[in-house]
Amino acid sequence: MPRSLPKARLRRRLVELGRMYRSDLERLEGETAAIDAGEDDLATLTQGQSATIAFLEKDRDTYREIVAALQRLDANEYGACESCDEAIGVARLDAIPYTRLCIACASDAPTRGVA
Ligand SMILES: [Zn+2]
Predict the structure, then answer these.
(1) Distance of CA 20 from the midpoint of ligand 1 (Å)
(2) What is this structure's pTM?
């Protein structure tokens, strides 16, 4: 990796985010387990229950991204855009340390759901 990234700082931030999402996931999993136990028909879910499940799925995705980012850090593959191969700006990495795309590619693909 040719440029020097504030890797220690980014790693701390990723670990911190990972912890946050982990405890959020545990809470949401507890809530959806209660839903699953009572209901087996998706059509009977209340709006609040569907929202909880949607949250859980989104948080799971984000958590996976955080873990993947930590693995990229360890493998020295961190900080390059997966779409155009350009370096992702440090400001963007500070804001979303698990992002896979540079800001240009991210704004090109707003509907892909990749941070
Ligand atoms: Zn890019």
Answers:
(1) 28
(2) 0.82
Residue 42's Cβ-side half-sphere holds a number of Cα atoms within 13 Å equal to 5
Range of the domain at 44: 7-108
Ligand 1 mean position, distance from CA 85 (Å):
6
Structural domains in the chain (count): 1
- 95, amino acid identity: A
113 occurs within a structural domain: no
Q: How confident is the model at residue 111 (pLDDT cuts 50, 70, 90)?
A: low
Question: CA 31, CA 70: separation in Å to the nearest integer?
Answer: 28
> What's the 109 CA to ligand 1 centre distance in angstroms?
10
Judge whether residue 47 has pLDDT over 60: yes
Structure tokens at 37: 């136990």
The CATH number of the domain where 71 resides is what?
Answer: 1.20.120.910
Ligand 1 mean position, distance from CA 55 (Å) = 27
Distance CA 78, CA 27 (A): 30
Quick one: tokens of 89?
A: 């700006």
